[in-house]
Design brief:
By secondary structure, this protein is of the alpha/beta class. It has two domains: 2-147, Spore Coat Polysaccharide Biosynthesis Protein SpsA, Chain A (Alpha-Beta Complex), CATH 3.90.550; 171-424, 3 Solenoid (UDP N-Acetylglucosamine Acyltransferase, domain 1). Helix content is 23%, strand content 30%. The chain contains ten helices and 37 strands.
Length: 425
């Protein structure tokens, strides 16, 4: 079976967390859409059609993928899947070649015939697929069509439960010592045999399952509340992990985390609260840094994506932090904050701005300026070296491109900040 994942124009709504990756690589539950589909379907070949500037890094990270390769797409019939769709397992199994699956009026799945491929270019999926779909039987598909980053958070708990059930975990083979307390069904707790759970750890599966992957280390006085997932090689230090949380691979986590997704390689070692948030790789959240995820008047939260304020319609929304951003001690994030990639946030004793463009240096609410690209790259390399990972040439090229691409957003944000500051004076 051949499968191709594609991004439509809706991918633009997932800044900053999708600035450096296609939307089908964003995590919801234990996996990204791409990982989940490749696990569930008998896929022999797969392709990816994404924003052109991401092609270089994606080819390097996924060498088996056919990236933006229209010729490959034209060789055989191929199931194409919208990267913003999180299908149920039954929805995937029910897909038929003569049908076009639709969610909320958007085509999310369709089997392309080679004769139809000449109609497609890298950037016209939104326009051509609905036309091709008219020659198929239209079916309403099950699952969720994501529109904004906070949708990943909203559906994470339910997806964690579904992913746990689909894994068909057998009872853990390693002996969990009597000093580890399990609350709820023992069958809803799975611990990889190579994971280490120290005494005085609490696994509370009364609200949902808990999965702890290979090489994870859970230190004493940590409490995990399901549904949740701890990824390969991650370490938890006296952490209070609340329901609906995904901790990706090689993270360091302490303090309180609620209903959040830590994509992987996130450092939040110390005390502080993180709630209803999505944090990208190589972010360092310093000790006592805290994010608000609820306004004091309980009103709906708006989030400034690329500077444009978007109403979420939700009461609990935290922050969305792009790759390689660093904070200093006791940084404070406002409800519904959008923090770009490769930024430096210095605590100034005040709440950080809700909108921090990529490559910015922020000192509380007092000042915001551009962070030198070379200094940002140096800091990123240093952080990666600490985990024995090297920045590739393709990644550096991507960051240099994004520095130029986000320049207008920075200029506009800095101007607005100066105008507000002058009004206060």
């Amino acid at each position: 079976m051949r499968v191709a994942f594609f991004e439509d124009r809706g991918a633009a709504n997932f800044t900053p967390v999708a600035l450096t990756r296609p939307v089908f690589e964003l995590i919801c539950g234990q996996f990204s859409l791409r990982e989940r589909v490749l696990r569930q379907l008998g896929v022999t070949e797969w392709g990816a059609f994404l924003r052109n500037y991401l092609a270089g890094t994606y080819r390097a990270s996924e060498p088996e993928a056919h990236v933006n390769d229209i010729l490959w797409l034209s060789r055989e019939r191929t199931l194409v899947l919208n990267g913003r769709w999180i299908p149920t397992a039954s929805a995937l199994a029910a897909l038929k070649p003569d049908e076009a699956a639709v969610v909320d009026g958007t085509v999310v799945a369709l089997t392309l015939d080679p004769m139809e491929v000449p109609l497609i270019t890298e950037d016209n999926w939104d326009d051509i697929l609905p036309q091709i779909a008219r020659s198929r039987k239209i079916v309403q598909a099950r699952g969720v069509l994501l529109n904004y980053p906070w949708d990943l958070i909203e559906h994470n708990a339910a997806q964690l439960i579904r992913d746990f059930q689909l894994q068909r975990f057998s009872p853990s083979q390693n002996e969990i010592g009597p000093e580890v307390a399990i609350q709820g069904p023992r069958a809803d707790v799975w611990v990889d045999p190579t994971a280490v759970l120290d005494p005085f750890v609490v696994l509370d599966a009364r609200r949902g399952p808990i999965a702890i992957d290979a090489g994870a280390v859970i230190q004493p006085f940590t409490r995990l509340e399901g549904p949740c997932y701890v990824g390969k090689g991650s370490q938890l230090f006296r952490a209070n992990v609340r329901e609906g949380t995904t901790i990706g691979p090689v993270c360091r986590v302490g303090g309180e985390v609620e209903c959040s997704i830590l994509h992987g390689y996130v450092n939040k070692y110390h005390e502080g609260f993180l709630g209803h948030s999505y944090v990208c790789p190589w972010v360092n959240i310093a000790a006592l840094s805290t994010s608000s995820d609820l306004k004091s008047d309980y009103s709906p939260v708006s989030v400034p994506l690329a500077g444009e304020m978007i109403p979420t319609g939700r009461m609990k929304v935290g922050c969305f932090i792009g790759d390689h951003t660093k904070t200093t001690l006791a940084s404070l994030f406002n409800t519904g904050s959008s923090i770009g990639i490769m930024s430096l946030l210095v605590n100034g004793g005040e709440m950080m701005p809700k909108h921090v463009p990529s490559f910015s240096c922020v000192k509380g609410a007092r000042s915001i300026d551009e962070w030198s690209l070379e200094r940002a790259l140096h800091t990123a390399r240093t952080a990666m070296d600490r985990r024995r990972v090297q920045m590739s040439a393709a990644e550096e090229k991507l960051y240099r491109y994004l520095f130029d691409r986000t320049r207008t957003e920075r200029t506009d944000a800095f101007r607005r900040h100066r105008e507000r500051a002058s009004q206060h004076h």
